[in-house]
Design the sequence.
C-alpha cells in the first residue's frame, strides 16, 4: 500500500467516526446564505447574477437541459424573501450560452454572457451583450460581439464585466497583469484605460461583479479567483474577494471559498452530471440595509445568495 | 511463597536500567517491588533503595531455570526479559503473557516491549525518571578527579565496553572515525573515553555525567544510564541489528528527550558530520538545554528530518535560517528534530510505498518527552519558513513566496497546541507523517485552535 492511501483511509475513518470532515465548510455555512429553491428553477441552475431593476429583483442563471454539456440561460424573478415567483428562459441562438451577468445601461436592462463551442473537445468562447426584452420568454436585442482581444472565437474570452460609467458603457476586460478598462459602443471598443494590476494571494483576480455601493456608502466590487493547488481528486478551488473601489484596498483573505460539499443530497449530487467541487462563482450583487447580497454559483449546481456585511469583506 | 509480584529480567545492565523507572512507580511506602537479576548484573541494584533484588545464581541466558525458580518463590511472576535464547524467551516469557499474541511484542524498541511485558506499554512514553538514590559521592568524586580536568568542558564517549568487562563494541564499527572527528573539539573540550574508565560500581559514572557537557554513546549500558541525568545532552548511536547481525531496528534503544542526535549505526558514516554540527550548536538558541536555563514555558519546535531529501535540502537550509532567527530573537524555543531512524518503525519498515517517513504518533510522543507541562508544541514541515507573526494555539497554511509575490497554498504547514493536548495522543489514528495533507488535517481537528494568518511560508522553488 502507498503511504498516502494508508493515510487517506485512516483519516477518512477518523473523520467519519467523529462526524466531521477535513473539507472547507459548505458555502452556506461560511456566511448567511439563501439557497434559491432549485426546484423552482430549471434543473441544477447555477452561476446566478442578481439585479434590482424597475422595482423587481431578477436573477439570471445558466442550466443544462437534460444534463447536456451545453448550457442555456434563464431569468428568475424573486420576491422580497428571495423566493422564485417566475422562471423564464432566455431565447438565444443554439450554442452553449453561459455565465450571464445582468446590468443596467442607459436606463435599460442588459445582459452579457459567454457563448461557447462546448461540447467541442477544445472549446473556445466569446462574450456577447445586448438589451433584454421580456415577452413570453426573454429575448436579447443586439447580441453584440465587442471586437477586442481574442473575442473572435479563436480563444476563451470570458468574465468581462459591463457597467455604466459617466454616461458611457464601460467594461472591465482584465485585472492582471494590468487592469484594462474599455469603453464600448455596441460591438465597437472606443477607449482603453490601463492601470497597474492587483495581485491577490489566492490566484488571479477575475470576473465578479460591477461595483455596488452599500447603504452605508461603501463602494465595492466582488471578484473570484482560482488556485489549482488542491490535492487530488479536487485539484482546484475558487475564492471570492472584494475590492474597495475608493481606497483600492483588497480583501486580506477570502470572503468565501469553494467547498467540496454543498447543499445537495448525495443522490442529487450524483444525478447532476456537471457538478464540480470547490467552486464558488460571483456574478451579481445588490445593496441591502446592512451590506450586500451577492449572488454566487455553487459547485456548478446551485444558486446561492450570500448576505455580506462590511466586516465580512476582510478589507 | 508470596503473592507479591516478582519481575524477572536477568540482564543485561541496560535492560535492568530500562525497568527501574517502572519499578520506581510501583514502589510504595513499605513495599519494594522484587526484581530477579543474574548475579553478573546484580550490583547495579545496590544503587537503588526502592527495588528488592532477588539475585539469580546463574547467567542472563538461563531464562527457563530462572522463571521456574521464580515460580517457586511467588504466585505472581512477571517475566519481562526480551533478550536471550529465542526458544526460552518465547516459551517462558512471551507465551506466559496474556498481552502477547503469537509471540509478537508491541513497540518499536525492545525497551518498550519490556514495559509491555510488565503491562505498562503506554507508560513508557511518559518518560518516568531513572533514579539512583544510593549513590556514593566519594567514589563519584574520585572518578571525576581522576578522569576530568576542571578547566575544560567535558565530552564523554562510550562505544560499548562496560567497565570491568571485556571489550564489546557490539555492531558499532566507527569508533576510530568518531574519535577522529572529536579531535577538532580538543582545544575547548576534554574528551574522555568511558571505555577506559574503570568504576567500582557502574552507576558511579553519574558523577562524570553530571560534570559532562555531552555524552556520545553507542547502544549500551552507558547510554541507558544517561536517562538518570536529565540535563546532559546525548548523541545516541543506536543499534539496528540483532546480535547475529540481521537488520532489526527493534533492537535499538528508544528515542529520549535528551537525545540531541539520534543515529542508527548503519547511518553513522553518512551522518557523522551532522553530529559535529549538533555538538557545535550546543549553547545556542534552539538548543533544548540552553533554552531551559531560563524559566517559563517554551515553544517546542518539532520537525522531521525524514522530509529532508535532495529535492527539499535547499528549502530546508533556508527554513533553518528563519528558525535560527526566530530562536535568536525569542530565546524561548526548543528544537526537537526527529532524526531519520529515530524510531524502530517507519513507513518503509511497514512495507509502504512512497518513501520513508515516521509515524505521527511516534513523533508526537517524542515531542512530549522533550516538552514540559506548560510548553507549546509547534509542528512544522522541514522546509517551513517562519515569519515574525506571533504564534498561539492554532494552525497556519503555507504561503508560496516568489519574486512575483505571494500565493496561498492549502497545505497545513504549522500546527501549534499546548503540551497537555499530547495526553490524548492515543486518540489519533496511526498516520504516517509524510508530505501529504491528511495527517495535518487530522491534527488540526484534534488539537483545535484558530488560524494564524501569515505565520509561515515556503519558497516557490
Sequence:
Amino acid at each position: 500500500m502507498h503511504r498516502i492511501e494508508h493515510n487517506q483511509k485512516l483519516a477518512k475513518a477518523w473523520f467519519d467516526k467523529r462526524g466531521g470532515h477535513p473539507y472547507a465548510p459548505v458555502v452556506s455555512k461560511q456566511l448567511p446564505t439563501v439557497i434559491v429553491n432549485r426546484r423552482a428553477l430549471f434543473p441544477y441552475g447555477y452561476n446566478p447574477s442578481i439585479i434590482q431593476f424597475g422595482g423587481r429583483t431578477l436573477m439570471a442563471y445558466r442550466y443544462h437541459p437534460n444534463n447536456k454539456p451545453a448550457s442555456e440561460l434563464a431569468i428568475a424573478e424573486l420576491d422580497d424573501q428571495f423566493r422564485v415567483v417566475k422562471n423564464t428562459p432566455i431565447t438565444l441562438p443554439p450554442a452553449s450560452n453561459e455565465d450571464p451577468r445582468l446590468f443596467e445601461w442607459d436606463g435599460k436592462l442588459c445582459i452579457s454572457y459567454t457563448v461557447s463551442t462546448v461540447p467541442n473537445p477544445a472549446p473556445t468562447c466569446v462574450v456577447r451583450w445586448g438589451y433584454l426584452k421580456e415577452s413570453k420568454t426573454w429575448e436579447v436585442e443586439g447580441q453584440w460581439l465587442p471586437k477586442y482581444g481574442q473575442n473572435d472565437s479563436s480563444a476563451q474570452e470570458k468574465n468581462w464585466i459591463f457597467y455604466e460609467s459617466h454616461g458611457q458603457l464601460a467594461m472591465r476586460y482584465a485585472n492582471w497583469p494590468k487592469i484594462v478598462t474599455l469603453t464600448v459602443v455596441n460591438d465597437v471598443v472606443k477607449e482603453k484605460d490601463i492601470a497597474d494590476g492587483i495581485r491577490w494571494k489566492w490566484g488571479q483576480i477575475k470576473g465578479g461583479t460591477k461595483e455596488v455601493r452599500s447603504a452605508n456608502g461603501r463602494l465595492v466590487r466582488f471578484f473570484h479567483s482560482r488556485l489549482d493547488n488542491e490535492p487530488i481528486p479536487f485539484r482546484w478551488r475558487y475564492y471570492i474577494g472584494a475590492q474597495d473601489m475608493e481606497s483600492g484596498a483588497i480583501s486580506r483573505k477570502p470572503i468565501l471559498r469553494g467547498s467540496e460539499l454543498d447543499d445537495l443530497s448525495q443522490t442529487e449530487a450524483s444525478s447532476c452530471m456537471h457538478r464540480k467541487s470547490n467552486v464558488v462563482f460571483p456574478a451579481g450583487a445588490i445593496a441591502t440595509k446592512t451590506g450586500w447580497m451577492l449572488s454566487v454559483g455553487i459547485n456548478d449546481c446551485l444558486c446561492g445568495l450570500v448576505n455580506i456585511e462590511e466586516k465580512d469583506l476582510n478589507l | 511463597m508470596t503473592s507479591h509480584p516478582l519481575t524477572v529480567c536477568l540482564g543485561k545492565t541496560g535492560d535492568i536500567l530500562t525497568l527501574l523507572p517502572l519499578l520506581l512507580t510501583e514502589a510504595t511506602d513499605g513495599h519494594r517491588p522484587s526484581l530477579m537479576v543474574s548475579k553478573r548484573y546484580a550490583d547495579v541494584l545496590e544503587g537503588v533503595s526502592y527495588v528488592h533484588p532477588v539475585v539469580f545464581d546463574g547467567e542472563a541466558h538461563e531464562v527457563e531455570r530462572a522463571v521456574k525458580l521464580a515460580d517457586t518463590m511467588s504466585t505472581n511472576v512477571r517475566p519481562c526479559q526480551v533478550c536471550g535464547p529465542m526458544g526460552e524467551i518465547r516459551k517462558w516469557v512471551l507465551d506466559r503473557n496474556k498481552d502477547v499474541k503469537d509471540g509478537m511484542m508491541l513497540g518499536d524498541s525492545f525497551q518498550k516491549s519490556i514495559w509491555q511485558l510488565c503491562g505498562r506499554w503506554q507508560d513508557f512514553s511518559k518518560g518516568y525518571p531513572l533514579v539512583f538514590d544510593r549513590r556514593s559521592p566519594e567514589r563519584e568524586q574520585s572518578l571525576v578527579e581522576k578522569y576530568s580536568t576542571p578547566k575544560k568542558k567535558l565530552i564523554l564517549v562510550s562505544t560499548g565496553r562496560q567497565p570491568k568487562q571485556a571489550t564489546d563494541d557490539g555492531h558499532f564499527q566507527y569508533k576510530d572515525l568518531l574519535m577522529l572527528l572529536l579531535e577538532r573539539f580538543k582545544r575547548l573540550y576534554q574528551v574522555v573515553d568511558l571505555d577506559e574508565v574503570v568504576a567500582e560500581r557502574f552507576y558511579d559514572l553519574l558523577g562524570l555525567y553530571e560534570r559532562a557537557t555531552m555524552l556520545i554513546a553507542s547502544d549500551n549500558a552507558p547510554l541507558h544510564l544517561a536517562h538518570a541525568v536529565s540535563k546532559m545532552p546525548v548523541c545516541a548511536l543506536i543499534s539496528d541489528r540483532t546480535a547475529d547481525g540481521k537488520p532489526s531496528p527493534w533492537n535499538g534503544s528508544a528515542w529520549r528527550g535528551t537525545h540531541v542526535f539520534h543515529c542508527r549505526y548503519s547511518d553513522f558514516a553518512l551522518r557523522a558530520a551532522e553530529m559535529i554540527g549538533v555538538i557545535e550548536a550546543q549553547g545556542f538558541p534552539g538548543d533544548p538545554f540552553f533554552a531551559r536555563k531560563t524559566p517559563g514555558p517554551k515553544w517546542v519546535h518539532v520537525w522531521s528530518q525524514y522530509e529532508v531529501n535532495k529535492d527539499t535540502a535547499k528549502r530546508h537550509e533556508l527554513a533553518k535560517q528563519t528558525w535560527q532567527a526566530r530562536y535568536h530573537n525569542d530565546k524561548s524555543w526548543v528544537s526537537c528534530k526527529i532524526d531519520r531512524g529515530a524510531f524502530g518503525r517507519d513507513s518503509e519498515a511497514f512495507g509502504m510505498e512512497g518513501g520513508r517517513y515516521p509515524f505521527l504518533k511516534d513523533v508526537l510522543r517524542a515531542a512530549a518527552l522533550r516538552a514540559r507541562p506548560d510548553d507549546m508544541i509547534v509542528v512544522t514541515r522541514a522546509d517551513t519558513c517562519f515569519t515574525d507573526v506571533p504564534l498561539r494555539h492554532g494552525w497556519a497554511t503555507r504561503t508560496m513566496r516568489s519574486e512575483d509575490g505571494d500565493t496561498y497554498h492549502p497545505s497545513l504547514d504549522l500546527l501549534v497546541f499546548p503540551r497537555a493536548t499530547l495526553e490524548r495522543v492515543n486518540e489519533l489514528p496511526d498516520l504516517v507523517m509524510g508530505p501529504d495533507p491528511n495527517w495535518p488535517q487530522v491534527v488540526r481537528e484534534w488539537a483545535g485552535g484558530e488560524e494564524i494568518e501569515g505565520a509561515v511560508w515556503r519558497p516557490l522553488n
Q: What stands out?
A: Chain B is about 30% helix and 20% strand. The interface with chain A takes residues 347, 351-355, 357, 399, 404-410, 428-432, 434, 436-439, 441-442, 445, 453 of chain B (CB under 8 Å).
